[in-house]
């Protein structure tokens, strides 16, 4: 368990800090943002940057606006023209996701084929779920696939692999949802560039989609033509970072961050978050004499149109500083939305689970449920081994979503205005915003002031052990993960002993304790969240626990025994096993085991 509020040095200071957090300025900022369409690297977004920096300057808060050149894709519309067997034609207007391939003026014409695919059922699978068996036994080569759901990267990859000529997604609602379909996280590099989408994709709304599917089912469609247009190129985007220097250990810092760019007005996603970050900067600056570590507050561009390009550029450019000195990262996306009164589906790396629950309980009186962060949001720091908490914060109760007939979306507190033209001022809720600002304030304040970092590393070890048990079940007696399990057990024992000693020790001894905690947590986070290793980026696809092992186990169990495939997979499995044992032992050694 994380220490209770009263055990923290500066509890009085924390109460004073939380007491100054208010929605007065944020509410003004949210209204101002409703005037700006904030596409990455555009004039509208620049106005939002000015709104932030004008205030930072006024308050005397040091800040920098970086202007990196990043690979950005701005959708510029899509149509689907349906030619019926009687010669009549109807053109449906829709959208296309960022990084889909523009069709050119001629468009892509083909035979339409309807695939049975479902919309993702919850916020955690929405970003990563593929098509399952929707393609099984279907002849789709050279045809235009028509299917339900959102054009997320795993689905685009499945369709591309199947050889379709183009895809038409039908939205689960009466509005189309904007989005992005590349699996490449941030700017492409030599390792990832080849994964860029090669498919043209349109998305139409539910009524139009229902009509199209009806025509296909009735054998009434002779052909469909998809037209899409996008402006995809390297362009400058603004990355705004303010720093409030700590009074005790200024070289150590907490990174609290969110995206400034948006789809349309983007009030719930993410003007509310931008305003929250600004309020945190203001109040932290006001209380900086009581702030032990530094806090960096970052507003990214390139989130929506560059697959987290801004935060990834920051992770690349300041990677060494981050890996050495960043205590934890805290993501702020879509707080303070209408009807969002519960903390469920919250994201945290396992060592910050108990901590985050304690803060939410202390600040709001509410319980919180969370889990392993999906490979989404601006969690661009996992390959640096950095612990993280929060992504989305509050969300509406399932009963409220059901009452409104809402389907799962990836933000706006569960409001289906998410990524549509309806994400306007009515999506923000002032009371919920005030509560969420205090949650973010509490999390950041405690991370910045905790004498001993509130990392429950035994919990992180147990989380890994649990995954290993699942994987061993999948492997049966074909491969033994016992050595990894033993390393995990040894680590859990070391972490428990270390934490018991650390919490009883003099806070003045904290510095060295924290260095060990941080190094051990880097090892565990790197092992549990990154397959590609330090300083790289995982794709925007499902990244399972212990991804290196998971990938090898999956390939191994899917290959017939004694086959070439099994031999190849077994080689990867041996290497992944070694890496896992080594990381756990290294982490254990940091905490005093031999
Ligand atoms: Zn967002």
Describe, in plain words, how this protein is organized in 3D.
This protein is an alpha/beta fold and 594 residues long. 39% of the residues lie in helices and 18% in strands. It contains 16 helices and 16 strands. The strands form four sheets. The protein has a six-stranded mixed β-sheet, with helices on both faces. A hairpin with a 4-residue loop joins strand 2 and strand 3. Helix 12 packs parallel to helix 14. The two termini are 26 Å apart. The N terminus is likely disordered. Bound molecules: zinc ion. Zinc ion binds next to helix 6.
Please write out the topology.
Blueprint (H helix, E strand, L loop, with lengths): L10 H10 L3 H10 L9 H17 L3 E4 L2 E16 L4 E6 L13 E3 L1 E3 L29 E5 L4 H10 L3 E5 L30 E4 L1 H12 L3 E16 L2 E6 L4 E11 L7 H20 L6 E8 L8 H9 L1 H7 E6 L11 E5 L5 H12 L3 E4 L16 E2 L8 H6 L26 H20 L7 H19 L6 H23 L5 H20 L17 H12 L5 H27 L4
Parallel strand pairs: 5-6, 6-7, 7-8, 11-12, 11-13, 13-16, 14-15
Antiparallel strand pairs: 1-10, 2-3, 2-9, 4-9, 10-12
Zinc ion binds next to α6.
Keywords for this entry:
594 residues; alpha/beta; six-stranded mixed β-sheet; 16 helices; 39% helix; disordered N terminus; binds zinc ion
């Amino acid at each position: 368990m994380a220490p209770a509020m009263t055990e923290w040095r500066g509890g009085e200071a924390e109460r004073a800090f939380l007491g100054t957090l208010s929605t007065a300025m944020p509410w003004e900022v949210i209204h101002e943002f409703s005037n700006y369409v904030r596409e990455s690297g555009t004039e509208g977004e620049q106005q939002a940057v000015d709104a932030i920096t004008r205030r930072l300057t006024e308050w005397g808060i040091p800040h920098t606006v970086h202007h990196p050149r990043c690979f950005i894709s701005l959708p510029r519309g899509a149509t689907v023209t349906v030619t019926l067997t009687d010669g009549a034609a109807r053109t449906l207007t829709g959208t296309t996701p960022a990084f889909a391939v523009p069709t050119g003026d001629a468009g892509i014409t083909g035979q339409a084929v309807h695939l049975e695919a479902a919309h993702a059922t919850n916020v955690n699978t929405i970003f990563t779920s593929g098509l399952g068996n929707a393609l099984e036994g279907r002849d789709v080569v050279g045809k235009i696939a028509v299917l339900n759901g959102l054009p997320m990267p795993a689905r685009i990859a499945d369709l591309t692999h199947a050889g379709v000529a183009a895809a038409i997604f039908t939205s689960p609602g009466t509005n189309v949802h904007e989005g992005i379909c590349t699996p490449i996280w941030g700017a492409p590099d030599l390792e990832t560039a080849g994964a860029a989408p090669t498919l043209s994709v349109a998305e139409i709304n539910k009524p139009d989609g229902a009509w199209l599917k009806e025509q296909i089912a009735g054998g009434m469609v002779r052909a469909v033509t998809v037209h899409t247009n996008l402006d995809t190129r390297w362009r400058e985007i603004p990355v705004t970072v303010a720093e409030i220097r700590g009074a005790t250990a200024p070289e150590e810092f907490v990174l609290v961050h969110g995206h400034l760019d948006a789809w349309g007005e983007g009030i719930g996603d993410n003007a509310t978050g931008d305003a929250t970050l600004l309020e945190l900067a203001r109040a932290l600056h006001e209380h900086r004499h009581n702030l032990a570590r530094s806090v960096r507050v970052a507003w990214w561009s390139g989130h929506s149109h560059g697959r987290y390009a801004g935060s990834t550029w920051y992770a690349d450019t300041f990677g060494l500083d981050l890996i050495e000195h960043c205590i934890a990262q805290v993501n702020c996306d879509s707080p303070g939305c209408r009807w969002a009164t519960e903390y469920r589906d919250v994201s945290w790396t396992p060592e910050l689970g108990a901590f985050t629950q304690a803060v939410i309980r202390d600040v709001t009186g509410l319980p919180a449920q969370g889990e392993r962060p999906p490979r989404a949001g601006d969690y661009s720091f996992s390959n640096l081994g950095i612990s993280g908490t929060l992504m989305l914060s509050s969300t509406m109760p399932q009963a409220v979503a059901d009452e409104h007939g809402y389907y799962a979306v990836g933000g706006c507190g569960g409001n289906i205005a998410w990524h549509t033209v309806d994400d306007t001022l009515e999506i923000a809720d002032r009371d919920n915003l005030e509560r969420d600002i205090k949650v973010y304030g509490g999390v950041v304040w405690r991370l910045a002031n905790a004498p001993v970092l509130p990392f429950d590393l035994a919990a992180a070890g147990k989380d890994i052990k649990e995954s290993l048990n699942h994987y061993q079940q999948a492997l049966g007696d074909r491969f033994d993960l016992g050595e990894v399990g033993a390393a995990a057990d040894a680590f859990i024992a070391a972490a428990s002993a270390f934490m018991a000693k650390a919490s009883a020790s003099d806070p003045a001894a904290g510095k060295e304790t924290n260095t060990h905690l941080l190094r051990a947590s880097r090892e565990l986070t790197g092992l549990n969240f990154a397959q590609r290793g330090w300083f790289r980026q995982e794709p925007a696809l499902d990244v399972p626990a212990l991804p290196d092992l998971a990938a090898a186990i999956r390939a191994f169990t899917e290959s017939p025994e004694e086959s070439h495939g099994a031999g190849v997979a077994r080689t990867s499995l041996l290497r992944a096993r070694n890496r896992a044992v080594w990381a756990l032992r290294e982490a254990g050694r940091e905490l005093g085991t031999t």
